[in-house]
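$ fold --in a.seq
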Amino acid sequence: GIKPEGDNLWPYTFTKQGKPAGRTNPDIYGDLFIAHGLQEYAKAKGNEQYWDMAKDIMLRRMKLYDSPDYSLANTRNMKAPRINGHWMIFLNLSNQMLEMKSDPEVEAVAARCVDAIMNYHFNPDFGLINEIINHDMSRNPETAQYSYTGHACETLWMVMQEALRKKDRALFNLAAERFRRHVEVCHDDVYGGWFR
């Protein structure tokens, strides 16, 4: 099969015949999307074991994300940066998994994501979420004005979804307020619409 052994990443691309074509991007996004698919597939009767596979992938990728050696293209030569988009995918995955069943390790991932997004990526100087911060969760002067507002809006609705799951009204209201701020900043007053 194509399932990788140990901590190796899943194949990133395939040929037309379905054969792995090598890995061109050494990031965790592909594996997290595979985990998304597996947890959804697990909801069909008789496929419950795929939830455990999704959990295993998620925890292994969090371990890689926590490594000081983790790198991602286009992160301004920063060493193992923290990316809002990564927390976004981890949060969405853990939230969907927790819809199916409770699990303390998955709960811990969800809580960690919310903490990172709301307390570290959020930049109170601008009222916006920074896409990239340092590995130790400190703000980087080179990226302190960089907000990928598309990811920020996506992330904040996922935080609101997590707040609903946990019945946390204060978190929901804070995420909604920050979501609105991003939408207002993104509005194009000249041509209409919003930019990301």
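$ fold --in b.seq
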Amino acid sequence: MPNHWGIVAEFDSAAAIYTAAEKVTSQGYVRVDAHTPFPVHGLDKALRQGPSPLGWIVVCCGITGITLAQLMMWWMNASDYEYWVSGKEPYAWPSTIPITFECMVLLSGFGAVFGMFGLNKLPRLHHPIFNHKTFWRVSDDRFFLSIEATDPKFDSAQTARFLESIGGKFVEIVED
């Protein structure tokens, strides 16, 4: 027996998918996602998605960059090899600001890129949702709503009927 990934339904407009997302989440489905050709304002709230943790990942990486830069320069200038420049003491913190800023930006950038890869579970060259017959239109003019089989309320027949009742077209069970 094939393993179900979930169920996908197609909608004609941004208004239709917004209304469908509200109805699906109000029925108690939680593993729901929308796939649209352009951003739809408020759709994340209709899907009850929380804020992304990516900002916190970037902040933590930036603070790590600041800390590592300061420790590195303290070790190099004040402990390992004391070097007096322009009559200033070996570790004068104002002279460390440019390097500290650059290390903060570098690690924040790495945190943003690799954090986004991790949160989006990338790289994934093929996703089961690509098996839906009309999903290729998502980048052109159609809107899709998917409910994963891991959703506690998922029942393939009942969920398919529900999606059709709220205006979903080409409702199809997608295999993993």
